[in-house]
Amino acid sequence: MRPTAHAPSPTTAPPAPRWAVRAAHLATLVVLPTGLWRIALVLGFPAGYTAEGFADFEAPGAKAWMLFLSVATESLALLTIGLVRPWGEVLPRWIPRMGGRTVPPLAATVAAILGAVCLTALWTPLAWWWTFPHAGMTHTGHIVVGLLYLPLVLWGPLVGAVAVSYYRRCTGRPVLARQETRQR
């Protein structure tokens, strides 16, 4: 019997471990506070800035950039879920010209690991947010914005851990704990 266009694509990899699924979802959540903060700026709420500091954010170009940045970061974070779902192994059929094709595990893993390294390098300095002066922010705003950005420090490591799990799962490479059990 020929499968219909709506039939789920078969996958050969076992399901993702529970910790990897949780880590993938957490990766999408650590991006959310900063996105919501930027959207507040776009909507005209000073969100921790003084009147003078907020003036730069009132330009249409600045608002467009902040909105784009919020949508882009959350969209990229959502791709992490593909590393624990079947659509990360076989592209959904609704994607033009590519739907139904198998995702090469090495390609997805390399892209995810490179992303994890870049995210880690980009966001790790935020752990020291409070040591840098932020002219144009109120004292309370400085603290709150630092707390909103701090979860981004976890984004890269979470993506990296999920990527390693994806690679092991999709290539059949046994997990270290399983190897130790088999050797006993």
List keywords for this structure.
mainly alpha; 184 residues; single chain
Tell me what the structure shows.
The protein is mainly alpha-helical. It is 57% helix and 0% strand. It has seven helices and no strands. The longest helix is centred in the N-terminal third of the chain and has 25 residues. It is elongated. The protein starts with 17 loop residues before the first helix and ends with a helix.
Overall radius of gyration: 20 Å
Report helical residue fraction.
55-70%
Q: How much of the sequence is in beta strands?
A: under 5%
Find the structural class using helix and strand composition.
Answer: mainly alpha
Ends distance: 45 Å
Low-confidence stretches: 1-10, 177-181
Strand and helix layout:
Blueprint: H1 18-42, H2 51-54, H3 60-79, H4 105-123, H5 139-149, H6 155-171, H7 176-183
Helix pairs in contact: 1-3, 1-6, 4-6
Describe the structure concisely for a colleague:
This protein is mainly α. It is 57% helix and 0% strand.
